[in-house]
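R.M. (postdoc): so does anyone remember the format we settled on? I'll just put the structure tokens first.
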């Protein structure tokens, strides 16, 4: 008999395995990094670890605890979660520091390509009784030159009102709260969705054990994930946040930027609306590879 499970039965090992498999599918082509770059970065990373060991006079008991934990990260499939929560925000900052257009943020581990496509004014896939305040998000995609970018795509995905992502928690429809919207001739779009909830990253796996051992919290503020693209322009990946969230200031993923905080307006009928657009940078010969 098939087990009847809900999103509240989600396990870190399952979501971790899913994130690992999704990353492997995305990373099909071999990535060539010149040997001198590998040597320079690996050497300095190891030297930094050595310095931490010396500074804190690490004991063998602590070293063995570290080894045990590193092994468990792999066994739980949580390397994508660990790297995206505690490392990716620095990589994102380095690779987008040249941009003149909209600010970006991290992708995180739960992106899934190929979400259903909708016209510029559309409703994201959701359940009939989807929890959360209905939200209409409108905006325009333009270039740094001021040109409206018709036919731009806005990929949107986010957690539901309970803090869970479809395809990473059981019991949710495959494409729940995931969609791709195509702007009209003036670069405008209007997306109907619901406000997501803040959530804790999975805490029953290796990352949760680190959080507990260090006395940290596991919370991410409520946010919308987006990827915005248009021909001839750099792909923009961002997360958009909501004012008043207590964890905007201490997001465990360090991904909140003031420019990415929305200003939703209460419509007075149990719904809200927000206007927020994007400015994309043209691709140049020096543009780094981003995601």
């Amino acid at each position: 008999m098939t087990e009847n499970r809900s999103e509240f039965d989600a396990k870190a090992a399952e979501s971790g395995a899913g994130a690992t498999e999704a990353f492997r599918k995305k990373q099909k082509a071999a990535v060539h990094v010149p040997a001198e770059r590998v040597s320079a970065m690996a050497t300095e990373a190891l030297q930094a670890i050595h310095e931490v060991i010396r500074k804190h006079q690490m004991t063998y008991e602590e070293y063995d605890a570290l080894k045990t934990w590193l092994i468990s990260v792999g066994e739980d499939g949580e390397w994508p979660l660990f790297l995206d929560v505690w490392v990716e925000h620095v990589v994102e900052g380095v690779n987008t520091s040249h941009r003149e257009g909209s600010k970006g943020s991290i992708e995180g581990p739960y992106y899934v390509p190929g979400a259903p496509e909708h016209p510029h004014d559309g409703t994201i896939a959701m359940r009939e009784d989807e929890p959360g305040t209905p939200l209409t998000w409108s905006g325009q995609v333009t270039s740094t030159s001021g040109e409206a970018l018709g036919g731009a795509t806005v990929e949107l995905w986010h957690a539901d009102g309970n803090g869970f992502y479809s395809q990473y928690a059981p019991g949710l429809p495959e494409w729940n709260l995931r969609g791709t919207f195509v702007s009209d001739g003036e670069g405008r779009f209007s997306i109907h969705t619901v406000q997501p909830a803040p959530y804790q990253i999975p805490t029953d796996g290796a990352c949760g054990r680190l959080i507990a051992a260090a006395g940290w919290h596991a919370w991410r503020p409520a946010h919308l994930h987006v990827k915005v693209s248009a021909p001839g322009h750099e792909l923009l990946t961002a997360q958009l946040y909501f004012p008043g969230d207590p964890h905007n200031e201490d997001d465990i993923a360090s991904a909140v930027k003031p420019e990415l905080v929305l200003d939703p307006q209460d419509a007075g009928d149990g719904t809200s609306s927000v206007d927020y657009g994007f400015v994309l940078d043209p691709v140049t010969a020096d543009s780094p590879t981003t995601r």
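R.M.: ...and that's the designed sequence above, right after the tokens. Also worth knowing: The CA atoms of residues 9 and 225 lie 23 Å apart. The longest strand covers residues 134-143.
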